[in-house]
Amino acid sequence: MEENEMKIKKETNLISIIQSYSEEKNIDNNTDLFELNISSIEISQILSQINREQSIKLTFADFMNCNTVNDLQKLILDTAPQMEQRAGKQYKKNNFKPTNVQMAYLTGRNSGFTLGGVSTHIYFEYDSDWDLSRFEEIINCEIRRQPMLRATFLAGKVHINKVEDCKYTLNVLGSKPDDFNDVLKAQKDIQKYRNFNPSKWPLFNFTAIKNSCGKSKILFDIDALISDGFSIRILFEDLVALYRGKEVNSISNKQLLNLLDTNSENVSDKSYWQNKILTLPQAPELPYSNKFSSVKKPTFSSVRKTLPLELWNKIDKKCEAERVRPTFFLMACYAATLAKWSNQKDVLINCTLFDRNNDLPNANTIIGDFTSVLLATYQRSKMFTWNSIKRFQTDFIHDYQHKDFDGIEVSKLLIKRDAKPLTDVVAPVVFTSMLFNKSDKNLSLGNVQNYATQTPQVTLDHQAMLTDDGVFLNWDYVDELFDYATISAMFNDYYGLVEGFAENKNSSLASKNALAAYQIFNDTKDISVLGNSMLDRFNKSVKLYSESIAVEGQESSITYGELDFKSNQIANYLLQKIQVSKGDFVAIVGMRSIDTIIGILGILKAGAAYIPLSTEFPQSRIDEIKRDSLYKDMLTDEKINTILSGKINESVQPLPNITADDVAYAIYTSGSTGKPKGVVIKHGAAVNTINDIICKYNIKNDDVFIGLANLAFDLSVFDVFGAFSVGAKLVLCENPRNVEEVWDLVTSSNVTIWNSVPMLMEMFVTFAETKLNSEDLDFSLLPKLRLVLLSGDWIPIDLPNKITQNFMDCEVVSLGGATEASIWSIYYNVKLIDSKWKSIPYGKPLSNQTYYVLDDFYQPCPIGVTGDLYIGGKGLASGYLNNPQKTESVFINHKEFGRIYKTGDLGYLNRSSFIVFKGRNDSQVKINGFRIELEEIQNVILKMPDIISVIVVVKHQEILVYYVGSVTEASILKYAGNFLPGYMMPKYCMQLKEVPLTKNGKVNRRALPDFKESSINQNVSSDAPKNSVEEFLENTISDLLKVKNVNVTDNFFELGGNSLLIVELFNEVQKKYPNTIKLIDIFKNSNIFDLSKVILNQLEKKEAQNEK
């Protein structure tokens, strides 16, 4: 009987506890817990009360797994007592250690930290009709009753000042009707992003600006060192209660410190995170407008919007139906948006926890910073659904069970894992939910007009707050890191995602702005450049310019009429002797020669497609291509000469009609497996590109092309058929790397059109600069270049200016694309070079072609977000010859964009509506968890004086640099250190006499020499202390860390040091050697050897000044 009565009593108590946190009054054992609309904070409070009364330890996850009150009641009855109620320590002192979060705030405000130099600060602005004298009285009353309002921070400790030393005077400003706004703005500029001095009281401020109506505008700001978001609510409610004459109990130091007291380190939680650290992702790598290191002191702005109460209620009900807490719903929407905007499959979000020890009485009446942080992982999927949110909620709750090893400690593990500088940023994207229920409207200080926060080492901070009108969604962001258009688009995508769930079961992650931008960007339709076959315009040129020179070689030339006649001979030979037909392939081996071009034309006239093979190909490669392509015949210059000499007599017959859908050529490119793959291009695809370039740059028959490209390289297709399409002359260069030969051809033949990889032009323009500055220059032989087409590799940022400075009226065009999309698909007319550019823009699609930046789920990346580049449109190849599996892997049928090709390149669409190229997927490496763009390192070193060329590679997870220039390895590393973060610094550098090139003029990375050990030796010869400063530091660190045998090269943090111990070390150094170091110096010089040098250097300076 007694047992049954006890059970009934427990059931009654549980219902009573739950009822005190819910507006629902009819609660019984069958009540669904989710339908009670209890916030996460209130769940923690309910659990604390249950645990305290029942001497058990139920967790947040336990509550979430219970559907009804009865489920929870059963769990309570089945759980044996596991702990005794903590009494709390009896604190009597006014000085105590700060929390982990407070230490992070204190160290983060140091300007030596990345994105540091600011305090964690909260600002409110509201209207009030309160009597200001009375207001000042109750502020002082609240100061007397709340210890943290009297707090300052001295020597790494929290100091609670005496009541009698904390008399506060309200700052009251008068104003006239015509200057109220000026006074408000001036005061707002002071308070909105103020940096309080933590050692000076008070760490908050109220200012009242009186207006002509007898009311006041109240500006309130406070340092988050002494108050979290929940505490501000407590403060406001206390002030209202006191103003109305209600009695409010005082808080003692003991109560405050008992609440701050936490259990000793949870070993199992630490072990959990040490294991999980191996798989934790990076924070979202958002489309920042600047590098973190460029921001010396961040300034903050906001984007915000209130989700109407009607929509929020719909979401609330859907969350209830899906058994999802509203906080997790918003957090998941936020994380999903940021994953989209960083194009990452998983991201790390820094989540604020209001982590009061609710086991203690009056815990929710005490002001202070009781927050901790949890680093939450969001894993992205193709569709964002309720299941996505539930999965995130489950993962979060699982991590939450191990929160005693908090996010600050986890961040330290991440710093070590990623080999980051101790002053660097780890998790700068924050989410804070302040969906506190039961807020009494009557306890508001007034109508809030403005609100702002700032936090060191944070780039983006989301807050969600319940208001009378709905849910206030606010993003604080660092001005210097986001342009307004980008942050607004991000926020709008997030808001749209949240809003969409109010109306639909699932919502879309697709960015409407991005889709619209791509539609405009890819509006390239132009039927005027479409054509039938590559021979059509050649045939027209034959009729118009029969006697004109078509091709000029080193020792001979050929007219259009002769070229037509001889290529017909080759076509007839193939048709009669070889019996080729449409769809057959014929290989042709040759370099840049008239005979080879005759052969190419003859193959096409016969209705076959040509496969160009270089004479420099090894026989094994030719054999492999023959096995793969099953080509019907092979032409060589010798064989062509035999046919043309008349030793083989061919009867003339009608040549086949060639259409746009017939195959024109197959060019073999390197395959990732080592086996070459043949890219099959149809006539119409190639003609579209060729005609478009001709039209865009007004190429005519009086232009002269120089043929620099190897015929096995698809740039040669434009050289040959671009010239033939307009009846222009093509001048063949036997050796493009012989700059003197190139110069002679360009000047003597009056070349106007240049088409090559950038390296060849760079060699030419360097040679030209010498020629053009020589005293014996023949002005009749000045280059007549008017159009330079550069593609196939990175264009050095300074090359276009060199070209236009040396060749007057020359237009420079950057072209890009893929062999798989008919020579080129994208272009950019290079005119003025923006000093902010890191590379020449990739540009816009050519006519009838399209370009997309897609993520791993084939969805368009938002503007500014790097993703994989895909090409669509008329230029696409049919695929890879006899390789359907490879074709299907990269030629994709997209449901919205049609057939597209994955290039393997990376880039993003910018707000100027052109694509910025970011390199190959394989040139973006990952070292210690960080994405590193090798071209970025290259561009930094290229800016160094006396550097000519730079190649950056990665071997064995180390960054290595090859360079041509008259500088030393040490000077390169020193220079690069001024611009690159530690994880991007090269390990070694090797000097080359020249950059090895492939036959096509590209950098030949395979020919780079093996790296040998660097000549630089930075090792310290001895680990033993050598002077009194080192001895002092060794003894001090040993004492602080409780370790023996500390060597001068041992890293302080790896020995067990943390932020708090650093402050203690700093204080000891200040006592022994006053004003010789700053706190940041210990972070930057984290071993005895380096730190002693800083101290000794300052001591020497002081001694020198004393002698003066």
TrEMBL record:
GO biological-process terms attached to the record: amino acid activation for nonribosomal peptide biosynthetic process; lipid biosynthetic process; secondary metabolite biosynthetic process
NCBIfam families on file: AA-adenyl-dom
Signal peptide coordinates: none
Recorded GO CC terms: cytoplasm
Keywords: Ligase, Plasmid
Molecular-function GO term, any one: ligase activity
Domain of life: Bacteria
Residue ranges annotated for the Carrier domain, each copy included: 5-80, 1024-1099
Family annotation (SUPFAM superfamilies): Acetyl-CoA synthetase-like (SSF56801), ACP-like (SSF47336), CoA-dependent acyltransferases (SSF52777)
Positions of transmembrane segments: none
Protein name: Putative NRPS-encoding gene, nrsC
